[in-house]
Hints:
Blueprint: E1 16-19, E2 26-29, E3 37-38, E4 47-48, E5 53-58, E6 65-70, E7 76-78, E8 91-92, E9 98-103, E10 106-111, E11 117-121, E12 124-128, E13 136-140, E14 143-148, E15 151-156, E16 168-170, E17 177-183, E18 186-192, E19 198-203, E20 205-210, E21 216-225, E22 228-237, E23 248-252, E24 256-261, E25 267-272, E26 279-284, E27 289-295, E28 307-308, E29 314-319, E30 326-331
Amino acid sequence: xxxxxxxxxxxxxxxxxxxxxxxxxxxxxxxxxxxxxxxxxxxxxxxxxxxxxxxxxxxxxxxxxxxxxxxxxxxxxxxxxxxxxxxxxxxxxxxxxxxxxxxxxxxxxxxxxxxxxxxxxxxxxxxxxxxxxxxxxxxxxxxxxxxxxxxxxxxxxxxxxxxxxxxxxxxxxxxxxxxxxxxxxxxxxxxxxxxxxxxxxxxxxxxxxxxxxxxxxxxxxxxxxxxxxxxxxxxxxxxxxxxxxxxxxxxxxxxxxxxxxxxxxxxxxxxxxxxxxxxxxxxxxxxxxxxxxxxxxxxxxxxxxxxxxxxxxxxxxxxxxxxxxxxxxxxxxxxxxxxxxxxx
Length: 344
């Protein structure tokens, strides 16, 4: 049964509302299916609660370029011309005045007020910056660099390139950066701060996220069980000095291929890779209870990239269920406690 009454959609733009076939929950497709529309990586800041817009990449005008959609009116706007955009690299700074992205290996910054585009550096495969931080982290030629005042310092070497969606993640609420390395066992997550890099986790792991206070990371781990492989959420806490505590189990999942926590880490949203149930699922951390939101029916569940809005009122995800990748939205404010958002 559909939950709550749906508000009228904007009269402009490409918004289309439909009832999910499995749950009857209202789902809104935000972009049409005449071209590809791709969300940034789930750890990026790309939904503005202050100005009510969402950033994405689209090839509707030829090559992929950064766009924004006004979530109140549905209006779409291209933000810059790019030649070889890394589609999942888009992210806002903490004040939502600067858009950063990688274009042809160049780390670029777009001032959203005057549309001026500057190049920070080139040869970049991935980057990250904490919303409230002053430092920028980037991976160039396998080296993790910290950028401050246009000067760089190498923090670590043998860092994964980020081409497969892994790379570096600035620590929230603290100093330092999480980064990934490839190994014979699969993947490794390391943290580097004031001290030398320390290993946090290794094996068949993916989708790391910092807790809002920067005191731990959560991620997916593939675990062999009874002639099968299951997907679990695990956590590694960090001490005040950056030293890791022991890895601990958080919750089983219904075969999440990707996931993301909400702002306070009390709820997770995931995309199931099960063939029989290709769903978007809410998972309550405390009770480990799951609730199905809707179907995603994507050909590659790992690319669905579900994420909460900053206030936890909506979930956004992408799917190629109709052929080309489009962006979808589901209202969850009756299921998840809304979070306050700083509007400074």
